[in-house]
Amino acid sequence: MLRLGGLWVLRMRSPAAGVPVKNLCLRELASGVSSPGSTSPRALNIFDRDLKRKQKNWAARQPEAMKFDYLKEEVGSRIADRVYDIARNFSLALDVGCGRGYIAQHLNKETVGKFFQVDIAENALKNVLEMEIPTVSILADEEFLPFRENTFDLVVSSLSLHWVNDLPRALEQIHYVLKPDGVFIGAMFGGDTLYELRCSLQLAETEREGGFSPHVSPFTAVNDLGHLLGRAGFNTLTVDTDEIQVNYPGMFELMEDLQGMGESNCAWNRKGLLHRDTMLAAAAVYGEMYKNEDGSVPATYQVYYMIGWKYHDSQARPAERGSATVSFGELGKINNLMSQGKKSQ
Amino acid sequence: MSGNGAVWGRVRSRLRAFPEHLAACGAEAAAYGRCVQASTAPGGRLTKDLCAREFEALRSCFAAAAKKSPRGGL
């Protein structure tokens, strides 16, 4: 008994003198978010990546994991459409944050020769969906891709970059592993995603508890996306946006589906507890403010699709200033101009 | 998490019954929602317990629905 007491006293004394252990832990948590005066702009730590891995593992191990796949399947098929739109065949492709491989199952062997699937959750990789393209599954973090420079013809990423802490660095890594004249096609959640849920929780928490804390993770704005891709070194950028609206019976079903998808909140500054009263209030507010005619409630998922190319000499570049041969004023006569061009050829 | 997850399982099963209890209190939920929504109009301010009365009505209806169901109580 005496020895136990001695050990306990030692543990209490080990932190810095005068600082109680409880405050030390709080300060560690707070320093996870970058302070305004930090020297390096890259020292961003918003999300708990370890917890995200645990959440994705848990979601992949659920008995009926497939019934939460609808959103990722839809976005995966739209990305596969964009891959088909590019009139090229890719011998080696990489899927960053693949989950269970939603993109690869829509592609065929002619378009993509071999597929590398990368994810941080091993249970998701174990349950990879059936597909005809030969695949290699690798357990890796999106920010630390373990590949050499100039390896891949195609990199795709579907709905996983919104949990990355250092997005500029992740995009730079993707640029690094791409071959010259390689292309990156990505999909990320945008700012309007789940705004109904965010607003309902905010209003209910304010009314019930007097203040509110963030429950929906921060998303990238569309302007920032263009800048980020440009900074990472990509050329010929294309960003377009799409909104998918899914109807749910109520707020609780929406939250259950989000958890089943592995999309639970893992930000460091999340509140650990959501009171039952607040949940009830938020469900009532959600139902009243946003309900459809048939009584269901909508949830908006705004997806940004981005396409970026790695520089290669063969790519089209903007023409030299002053090298124009026709002016915009002659746009009305474009049919004549085109037929003239054809005749001269 | 505990070893066999008994407590967690119990709590989750209670939570899973929330939507049907809430569905039984449609009128009170709508009244509460309307009260909160009214405060978001320009000129309104949402403060703590602004709609406390409507929420109490919702909560008591919800608790009654929960007691009636075979699960038994919040």
From TrEMBL, chain A:
Q: How does it assemble?
A: Interacts with NDUFAF8, leading to stabilize NDUFAF5. Interacts with NDUFS7. Interacts with PYURF (via TRM112 domain); the interaction is direct and stabilizes NDUFAF5 protein.
Read off the InterPro entries from this record. Malonyl-ACP_OMT, Methyltransf_11, SAM-dependent_MTases_sf
A Pfam family it matches:
Methyltransf_11
Q: Tell me where in this chain the Methyltransferase type domain is found.
A: 94-185
Sequence similarity: Belongs to the methyltransferase superfamily.
Q: What biological process terms from GO does the record include?
A: methylation; mitochondrial respiratory chain complex I assembly
Q: Which UniProt keywords apply?
A: Acetylation, Methyltransferase, Mitochondrion, Oxidoreductase, Transferase, Transit peptide
* Localization per Swiss-Prot or TrEMBL: Mitochondrion
Q: What is the lineage of its organism?
A: Eukaryota, Metazoa, Chordata, Craniata, Vertebrata
Q: Name one GO molecular function term.
A: S-adenosylmethionine-dependent methyltransferase activity
Q: Does the keyword Transit peptide apply?
A: yes
What is the name attached to this protein's record? Arginine-hydroxylase NDUFAF5, mitochondrial
Where, by residue number, does the polypeptide cross the bilayer? none
Q: Which GO terms describe its cellular component?
A: matrix side of mitochondrial inner membrane
Q: Which organism is it from?
A: Neovison vison
Origin, by domain of life?
Answer: Eukaryota
Q: Does the keyword Protease apply?
A: no
Automatic annotation (TrEMBL), chain B:
GO BP terms: namely:
mitochondrial respiratory chain complex I assembly
For this protein, the record's InterPro entries field holds: NDUFAF8 (IPR034595)
The coiled-coil regions, if any, are none
- What PROSITE patterns does this protein's entry cite? CHCH (PS51808)
What GO CC annotations are associated with the protein?
mitochondrial matrix
The domain of life for this entry's organism is Eukaryota
Its name, as the record gives it, is NADH:ubiquinone oxidoreductase complex assembly factor 8
- Which species is this record about? Neovison vison (American mink)
Gene that encodes the chain: NDUFAF8
